[in-house]
Amino acid sequence: MSQPSFSNASAWSHEGLSPSSFSLAYQPVFSIKAENQFVVAFEALLRITNRGVTQGPAELVTRAEADGTIIEIDRWVLDQVIALLRSRPRLSVWINTSQLSIAHPTFVEDAIRSLTSNQVIGRVSFEVTETADVDAQILTKRLEVLRLQALTVMVDDVRDGYAKRSLIFSDAVAGCKLSRESTRELMVSERTRAEVESLVKLCRRLGKQVVLEGIETTDELSLARQLGISLCQGYFLGMPANPADLQHFTEMRPHD
User: Fold this and answer.
1) What own/partner pairs with CB < 8 Å and gap ≥ 24 does 187-190 have?
2) Distance CA 126, CA 141 (A)
3) Could you give the CA distance from residue 219 to residue 101 in angstroms, rounded to a whole number?
4) Hey, CA dihedral for 101, 107, 108, 111, is it positive or negative?
5) What is the spatial distance between Cα 123 and Cα 164, in angstroms, rounded to a whole number?
6) What is the pTM of this model?
7) Residue 28, SS3?
8) Quick count: other Cβ atoms within 10 Å of Cβ 239?
9) Is 188 exposed, middle or buried (0-12, 13-18, 19+ CB in 10 A)?
10) Within a 13 Å sphere around the CA of 156, how many CA atoms are in the beta-carbon half?
11) What is the pLDDT of residues 111-166, one digit of tens each?
């Protein structure tokens, strides 16, 4: 079975960018249940280098979702992650994926085909992001296809104006993520803490995971434990870096 082509020149047209302008950094996701926390996965983060400056993708993603090229960018990210997974048998990766891509008529099937043919299916989880908006019924159907292939889906930034929180109740969704903004608010707002405590209880009742992003201090890590959140990311735990700079994690070491 041939691997689908994940390249389209139109996806790189913004401000003169080309595929060589894009790279991926990987940030570890830690289980903090025990004092000796350990890595459960790495999140792939898109980085763009333009005129010698490397930055995050927020502005590009907004424009790419507006003109539809986000689908090709998400295909490119998946292709790069698959190449990394082939050389690192202990590695699991979480990929940020636009709702537009998930709802696209062929994206999910192409992704499953590529993951299967490269023998890495089950080692990729999709984080569904919401900048663009798509029909909830279509999105749910596409997520169900991923579930049937035992592919994990997380709802990203669930408190940041996410319009489809009802996805948490779907059997196709394994859990949700709370952004750095939520972490900041948790440290100063009793209202936010009450909201997050309620969310954590709901997810626990439904058998879902909760991930808290943006852990930058010992106090924030302690608060995550107090709230019963067992999965965390943040600079305090592990910085985003390219694979070569993460060799101290056994999961990031290639075949000997």
Assistant:
1) 187/219, 187/220, 187/223
2) 15
3) 37
4) negative
5) 25
6) 0.89
7) strand
8) 13
9) exposed
10) 14
11) 999 999 999 999 999 998 766 678 888 888 999 999 888 888 998 877 665 556 67
As given in the structure block, the two tokens for residue 19 are: 């595929």
Helix %, strand %, coil % for the chain, to 5? 45, 20, 35
Strand locations in the chain, DSSP E?
22-31, 38-50, 53-55, 93-98, 124-129, 152-155, 175-178, 209-212, 231-232
Contact 39, 153 (CB under 8 A): no
Cα(96)–Cα(42) distance, integer angstroms: 11
User: Rounded to an integer, what distance in angstroms lies between the CA atom of residue 170 and that of residue 206?
Assistant: 9
Write the pLDDT tens digit of every residue in 181-220.
Answer: 999 999 999 999 999 999 999 999 999 999 999 999 999 9
CA nearest neighbour of 133 among 111, 106, 157, 164: 164
Q: Rounded CA gap, 5 and 13, in Å?
A: 18
Query: By the 8 A CB rule, do 93 and 126 touch?
Result: no
| The amino acid at 135 | D
pLDDT tens-digit series, residues 82-112: 999 999 999 999 999 999 999 999 999 999 9
Domains and CATH numbers, the chain: 9-169+231-252 (3.20.20.450)
The distance from CA 237 to its chain's CA centroid, rounded to whole angstroms, is 17
Question: Burial letters for 215-238: b for 16+ Cβ neighbours within 10 Å, e otherwise?
Answer: beeeebbebbeebebbbbbbebbb
Name which of 99, 165, 109, 169 is nearest 138 in CA terms.
Answer: 99
Number of Cβ within a 10 Å radius of residue 241:
17
The two tokens of residue 206 are 């439904």
